[in-house]
Amino acid sequence: MDIKSINNMLDKTLVQGGSKSVEAQNSQINRQNDINQQLKEELKKLDKNQIESLLKGIKEKFDYMNKYLKIEIDKDLQEPVIKIIDKKTNEVVRQIPPEYLLELAKRIDELVGLLFRKEV
Fold first, then answer.
1. What is the reported pTM?
2. Helix axes 3-15, 48-64, angle to 10 degrees
């Protein structure tokens, strides 16, 4: 997979959104997870110059839309969180994974921790 195909996947992800039914949201989450997994696998194959070129292209696209990309690591889950933020309002336009999924994952981790503590 080359940089253009990764950019196309990002374009498709950015265009999606709006209010949807729960079923449609679950389907979208599954697609996002698939795209994230593909991106991780493909980024492992890229060299430094290709990654820099990819990031430059992504930055140009976000500049055109008057938005910027912020990547953080969740403190509790140690997982990357990608946010698309509007430059004018500083409001989060899109977050991958969504906040409710992060909260769900944290709750599941807590429950698993409780189960193991009671067994010991």
1. 0.50
2. 30
Per-residue pLDDT of the chain (120 residues; tens, 9 = 90+): 455 555 555 555 544 444 446 676 667 777 777 877 887 777 677 777 887 888 888 888 888 888 988 888 888 888 889 999 999 999 999 999 999 998 998 898 888 887 776 655
Tokens of 49: 């110059």
DSSP assignment of the chain: --HHHHHHHHHHHHH--SS--HHHHHHHHHHHHHHHHHHHHHHHH--HHHHHHHHHHHHHHHHHTTEEEEEEE-TTT--EEEEEEETTT--EEEEES-HHHHHHHHHHHHHHHHHHHHH-
Q: Which of 32, 4, 36 minimizes the C-alpha distance to 16?
A: 32
Residue 43: partners with Cβ closer than 8 Å, 6 or more residues away:
51
Q: 63: buried, middle or exposed (CB in 10 Å: 19+, 13-18, 0-12)?
A: exposed
